[in-house]
Amino acid sequence: MNNHIDFYFDIISPYAYIAHKKILKHKNIVFNYKPIYLGGLHKLAGIDSPAFNKYKLRNNINDCNLVSEKNNIEFKWNSNFPINSLNIMRGYLYVEENKKIDYLNCFFDAYWKDDRDLSSVENISKLIRNLDIDIEEFFQFIKQQSIKDKLIKLTTDAFQKEVFGTPTFIVNNKIFWGQDRLEYALEEFANN
Q1: 46, 55, 78, 168: which could form a disulfide with 8 (CB 3.0–4.6 Å)?
Q2: DSSP states of 108-174 as a string?
Q3: Cα(61)–Cα(14) distance, rounded to whole angstroms?
Q4: Spatial separation of the C-alpha atoms in residues 75 and 166, rounded to whole Å
């Protein structure tokens, strides 16, 4: 039996953003944030991203607007979608434990609320500076092979657990995929 809920995410996923905002309302439950690289996960699973299918993309935009409005979550589809999220996800591994939620809030909001271009090193640097994180150390850290390998391992481990997209929640070895399955994960957790 688990005393937490595993939450697999990538900053690039609008549904992970929505799920993260919902999670913040459940302060009495421990969520174990599991960063992965969604592009790598899709490649392992042989999945084409909806970002590259105009019909799926249009539906995703409409759906995210609908879901976020229904849940009172500020949301704006990013005009630079999709971007490569590797630097941001590696950066999450660098940030001290007590700053991880602030880091996620900052980057999720910048991308999915404020329509910032997070493929720009300059924009990433501004956000890092606002979080009082050493910019030089940050960029040195995310280039280290050990960090690259760590994110690859986290992504591969997720794939081996049959995670195929984000957000995914795992409770008691049961997988719940999608922001709309958070309630199911919470029910499973409550029945521990």
Answers
A1: 168
A2: HHHHHTS---TT-HHHHHHHHHHTT--HHHHHHHTTSHHHHHHHHHHHHHHHHTT--SSSEEEETTE
A3: 9
A4: 17
Give the DSSP H or E segment for 92.
helix 86-94
Query: Tell me: the pLDDT tens digits for 27-74?
Result: 899 999 999 999 999 999 888 777 777 888 899 999 999 999 999 999
Give first-to-last CA distance, the chain, whole Å.
Answer: 6
- 130-140 pLDDT, tens digit each: 999 999 999 99
CA distance 84 to 90: 11
**CATH architecture of residue range(s) 5-190:** 3-Layer(aba) Sandwich (3.40)
* Sequence-ordered list of residues with C-beta below 8 angstroms from that of 89, at least 6 positions apart, any chain: 10, 11, 35, 36, 37, 151
Helix (H, G, I), strand (E, B) or coil at 102: helix
